[in-house]
Amino acid sequence: ENAATEQTIVLVTGGSGLVGKAIQRVVEEEIPDDEQWIFCSSKDADLCNLEETRALFEKHRPTHVIHLAAMVGGLFHNLRNNLEFFRKNMAMNDNVLLACHELGVKKVVSCLSTCIFPDKTTYPISETMVHNGPPHPSNFGYSYAKRMVDVLNHAYNADHGRLFTSVVPCNVFGPHDNFNIENGHVLPGLMHKVYLAQKEGKPLEVWGTGNPLRQFIYSYDLARLMVWALRSYTEVEPLILATDEADEISIGKAAILIVNAFGFRGHVVFDTSQPDGQYKKTASNAKLRKYLPDFKFTPIERGIQETVDWFLHNYEQARK
Ligand code: NDP
């Protein structure tokens, strides 16, 4: 029995994105001798294509996989592209999990999202509610494709005994995010808008009322939790990775934190002709807290300040 000395090869799909870059930084702080980590992007393989996916997995022969690759976008990008969000994410998830099964990968951790839960629901949302009712219509394509990851995980387990599982992050933000105003998520989009408003001496225009409530997790906190999940979480059932419910804040309040991080002195106006999206998606992290009662999340003020500083220092190369 030489299991203890067997090399662990972790392949991270979507390794060039917001979450992938954070995981890379976290594991590089301390890689155990028996672990090798490989971070892939769409340049290594188009995971919508089964043959390219198989070739990538044959090349690296991973023992463990963190599957992050996805077509991801904010409310406004989703509203216009539900078909593409559904088809691309369905294809990527099916191809990646099939390749993992064919190679006998020991463990896969894939990513769902708290925005895929039923629109009409009781709060707080918990892991058991993934399939309880239709998602918010704004992003039904993305949501149903993500929900099918959980179906695949259970089917691979039922039919083949595989340990393919998923985690369910709330809204993520941090360095390497997509700061595109039209297509990105709310925090990076607002950061880019404040940057431009400051440069042009114009007011900051926030889309929507600013009232919706969200939980935001700093990408490095999520990264630490996902690395823990890969090593230590052994259920097929999803695990919500969210900040505490008390840390939920309104989009208006988040906008003010961003304004403060930039030292922006202009006016802030809310364009209420724009849609708000779902009012809230409050998720419970009680299950996570059972496993890791003492985990400390980075205060959102600090995460926002670090992200704004990163954006300012990397403006030229940042996705925008
Ligand atoms: P990003 O958009 O930052 O990164 C997406 C990654 O997927 C990139 O590495 C990209 O590669 C890769 N990718 C996209 N399309 C393909 C493809 N066809 N073939 C191969 N690779 C592809 O996403 P995030 O880091 O924000 O998201 C990571 C995961 O977390 C996703 O599964 C997402 O659904 C989930 N999640 C994200 C949340 C958030 O708020 N951001 C919230 C909850 C869940 P390339 O760089 O080459 O384009």
TrEMBL record:
Pathway(s) annotated for this protein in UniProt:
Nucleotide-sugar biosynthesis; GDP-L-fucose biosynthesis via de novo pathway; GDP-L-fucose from GDP-alpha-D-mannose: step 2/2
Q: Which family does it belong to?
A: Belongs to the NAD(P)-dependent epimerase/dehydratase family. Fucose synthase subfamily.
Give the CDD domains listed for this entry: GDP_FS_SDR_e
Its EC top class is oxidoreductase
Q: Which HAMAP family match?
A: GDP_fucose_synth
The identity of this protein, by name, is GDP-L-fucose synthase
Instruction: Identify the residues that the record assigns to the NAD-dependent epimerase/dehydratase domain, covering every copy.
Output: 10-235
> So what EC number does this one have?
1.1.1.271
Per its UniProt record, what InterPro entries does this chain match? Epimerase_deHydtase, GDP_fucose/colitose_synth, NAD(P)-bd_dom_sf
Q: Known Pfam families for this protein?
A: Epimerase
This protein's species is Darwinula stevensoni
Instruction: Supply one GO molecular-function term.
Output: GDP-L-fucose synthase activity
Tell me, what is an example of a GO biological process annotation in this record?
'de novo' GDP-L-fucose biosynthetic process
**Could you tell me the keywords of this UniProt record?**
Isomerase, NADP, Oxidoreductase
Kindly give the SUPFAM superfamilies that the UniProt entry links to this protein: NAD(P)-binding Rossmann-fold domains
Purpose: Catalyzes the two-step NADP-dependent conversion of GDP-4-dehydro-6-deoxy-D-mannose to GDP-fucose, involving an epimerase and a reductase reaction.
